[in-house]
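Protocol check, entry for the methods section draft. Step 1: assemble the input record (protein sequence plus ligand SMILES). Step 2: submit for complex structure prediction. Step 3: store the structure tokens unaltered in the notebook. Ligand used here: NAP. Step 1 record:
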Amino acid sequence: MKTSGNTVLITGGATGIGFALAAALSNQGNEVIICGRREEKLSEAKEKLPGISIRTCDISQQAEIESLFDWVTSNFPGINVLVNNAGMQRAIDFRKGVEDLIKNEDEINVNLKAQIYLAAYFVPVFSRRQTESAIINVSSGLAFVPLAKFPIYCATKAAIHSFTISLRHQLRVTPIRVFEVIPPTVYDTELKGKPLQKSDWTVSSYEVADAVMKGLKNNDYEISLGAAKNWINGSKNELEIAFNNMNR
Ligand SMILES: NC(=O)c1ccc[n+]([C@@H]2O[C@H](COP(=O)([O-])OP(=O)(O)OC[C@H]3O[C@@H](n4cnc5c(N)ncnc54)[C@H](OP(=O)(O)O)[C@@H]3O)[C@@H](O)[C@H]2O)c1
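Step 3, stored output:
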């Protein structure tokens, strides 16, 4: 699809992969709107990319998803791309029963339910477009090879992978293209609380954004890089070996 002249909403666009994507899309002549919970992070992003628009929103709340949708469609009637990027990752130890589940924010709402609802809100709007439009869901290599320390996170990403396949199939008769971005571990984001060390098995958020821009241009519907690229086509045996290596 074309990678300029779009109007793009990126959830969680103030930091990490979302911000790198906001920068890449903005530099290529797209109108970019980002949202997130923290106003200061959104303002910092706007200082770096003055052309973008920002909106505070907690997508774990249904009412806030609705008001985000209303605000975006009223203020940016040409909106034609949704990037479902916002996400969170929590360590959950089931040997403690419900203790970790209760004290942590609900990953299912943010990583899965919100993406599904946002897609559902925007599909009818995008269907009416004369030009092509897109829904871009960010999953993870962990959708294919779980890291057992983050069981709910991995389950939500596997669910997003499955949901994206079904959505793409349902929308094949519309002008809406449905992409999945499948990054490996990204070292320079806030997902794990602090940036990780750069290593052979990690990539930067800018490498992910670069792969997304190329993938969109080539209509490569499953955009992956690094280790995740091997995993999406891995055999059961290869995925088992990767699982055992990662969960040692
Ligand atoms: N980092 C990795 O290794 C990796 C690998 C594969 C896939 N991914 C995926 O990439 C996506 C982006 O993550 P990232 O690595 O770039 O981490 P990040 O820097 O932490 O970005 C996540 C963004 O989501 C926003 N967010 C979280 N909860 C939200 C909520 N309830 N409502 C609205 N916004 C919310 C955060 O902003 P606020 O806190 O201000 O709301 C933040 O800007 C996620 O879906 C993640 O699962 C990451």
